[in-house]
Amino acid sequence: MNTGSDEAGEVAVAADKTRSGRPEAGQDAEHGLGSRAPEFIKARRLLHLSWQVGVFVVGLAVVAAGIVMLPLPGPGWVVIFGGMAIWATEFVWAQLVLRWTKRKVTEAAQRALDPRVRRRNITLTAIGLVIIGVLVGIYLWKFGLVMPWKIKDQ
């Protein structure tokens, strides 16, 4: 999976501050890949495992709520990505998925702002509106405008 790096051959690894005093390429000094739990939690294995289970359960609940919101009213995708962000505070795989998603969304936004694509989208929208207008005109010409509350009992 491409992790969003522009440099060839770069591998996504957890930042280890003991090996080098400088941050990984594209990362700020404090937050590399890996757990963002406080140091006193990471120092105790059982506490860290409990922390990871808690983060996973909370993230799972948020993602599940987002999935429920997809067919129901609510910001489903926003909530799903919020759950992924919760997971990304602790799990490298979620950080990589969010990095990939952020890159794809940025690319899509740049493509949408391209003048040729905008002209094409406006043209297609105009053609669609004309077709819908013609179909509504044909329907009104053939059947007329009858409101549902004025339909006579048959």
What does this structure look like?
This protein has 154 residues and is an all-alpha fold. Helix 2 runs antiparallel to helix 3 and helix 3 crosses helix 4. About 17% of the residues have low confidence.
Summarize it:
This protein has 154 residues and is mainly alpha-helical. The chain has five helices and no strands.
- Proportion of residues in β-strands: under 5%
Proportion in helices: 55-70%
Identify the overall geometry. Answer: elongated
Rg computed from alpha carbons, rounded to a whole number of angstroms: 26 Å
**DSSP helix count?**
5
| Structural class by sheet pairing and helices | mainly alpha
Q: How confident overall, as mean pLDDT?
A: 78
Give start-end ranges of low-pLDDT stretches.
Answer: 5-30
- Strand tally is 0
Largest sheet properties: none
Q: N-to-C terminal Cα separation, in Å? A: 64 Å
SSE ordering = HHHHH
Secondary-structure blueprint:
Blueprint: H1 39-42, H2 45-69, H3 76-88, H4 92-112, H5 115-143
Helix pairs in contact: 2-3, 3-4
Considering the chains and any ligands shown, give keywords for the structure.
elongated; 154 residues; mainly alpha; 60% helix; 5 helices
